Amino acid sequence: MCPFCYIGKRRLEAALEGFEHKDKVELVWHSFQLDPTIQSQQGKNLYQYLAERKGMPLERSKQMHDQLTQTAKEAGLTYNFDKAVIANSFDAHRLIQLAKKHGLGDAAEERLFKAYFTEGKDMSDHATLLQLGTEIGLDDAEIKQMLESNAYADAVRSDIATAEQLRINGVPFFVLDNKYGVSGAQPVELFSNALQQAWAEHTPAITSIGGEQDAVCGPDGCEI
After folding, report:
1. Most buried pick, 6, 49, 87, 144, via CB within 10 A?
2. How far is Cα 86 from Cα 163, in angstroms, rounded to an integer?
């Protein structure tokens, strides 16, 4: 439900497209909630919600969302904030954790992002989550069982606790090879540079010191 997260996803994907080792990169999504206490607020739109939370005029809130809509458009995304539904995302995160079990974590994130920002779906509605989960290939019975229980709740809370330990208090936040952190929906070039740096340190090249290669043995014999 963070507008910069969807934009950041697209920019990271663009950087990965130009990364020569992209086939060796594994993308893992982790749960995070900016406001775990948020509840559905019928009759209140996102413009009003942000204006009240930030103590700003309603018109200013609309202007900010218009700017976000344009930024999203530049990333190839369609944001319809007029349709956005204020809701708690905890069960949606549980759905993502279930999807990760089946290797569908990225597919779940993509479908949920589009459902919220473009289609105006309610991220707390179980019928909606069931539909979205089956669309990406999850078993409907397994989704129902998860939604009707507390399954994967601990996984969501564990991700949030880990983020807190790493002092992550905002999203999007990208962790590369457990070494480098990229905060925010940064430009594609920054993601590209970060990928290159993380890869270089993950697979360092050996710099030879000395003259010509001699006094060594190889598959074809020894150089004397």
Report:
1. 6
2. 24
Helices (H), 75-216: 90-101, 105-117, 126-135, 140-147, 153-165, 188-202
Its pTM stands at 0.88
Mean pLDDT of all residues in 188-204: 92
Task: Spell out the CATH class of 3-202.
Answer: alpha beta
What is the distance between the alpha carbons of residues 129 and 36, in angstroms, rounded to a whole number?
Answer: 18
pLDDT digits (tens, 9 = 90+) for 10-21: 999 999 999 999
> Secondary structure of the chain: what % helix, strand, coil (to 5)?
55, 5, 40
Domain edges within the chain: 3-202
Cβ distance 3 to 34 under 8 Å? no
Instruction: Print burial letters for 146-184: b (CB count within 10 Å at least 16), e (below 16).
Output: bbeeeebeebbeebbeebeeeebeebbbbbbeeeeebeb
Give the tens place of pLDDT for each residue, 26-43.
999 999 999 999 988 878
Query: Could you give the C-alpha distances from 30 to 25, 103, 142, 179, in angstroms and in order?
Result: 16, 13, 21, 16
Instruction: Classify each residue of 204-223 as buried b or exposed e, where b means 16 or more C-beta atoms within 10 Å of its C-beta.
Output: eeeeeeeeeeeeeeeeeeee
